[in-house]
Amino acid sequence: MSTWPVTLPQSPRGSGFSQRDKSATIRSPMGYGPDKTRRRTTAVIQEVACNMALTDAQKDTLIAFYETDTAAGALSFDWVDHLNGGAVAYRFLSPPQWSYAGCDNWLVQMSLEVMP
Predict the structure, then answer these.
(1) What is the pLDDT of residue 39?
(2) How far apart are CA 77 and CA 60, in angstroms?
(3) Count of C-beta atoms within a 10 Å radius of residue 29
């Protein structure tokens, strides 16, 4: 398993960071009455939205990491848990999104999931 590159920031910016549990239940509509619900899984998967400021070189590093080390988001990678500081496995939910911040700086937004 790959590890988050040491040349990239080791924690996201505080503003824009959010983490939430994905629903572990499935809802099935009934012909009459309330929906039927059941547990999909006992493992809780969490979604993480975060952003960070990068230089041109760091942007290139993140692109290479995404495309090569995680096989365009198909493989998970180890990074720090930003809530309790331990190591955890993440996977990209979608490709990173870039915004130009001027003077060879970029703001990247990432959608990740914490693997159970």
Answers:
(1) 77
(2) 18
(3) 8
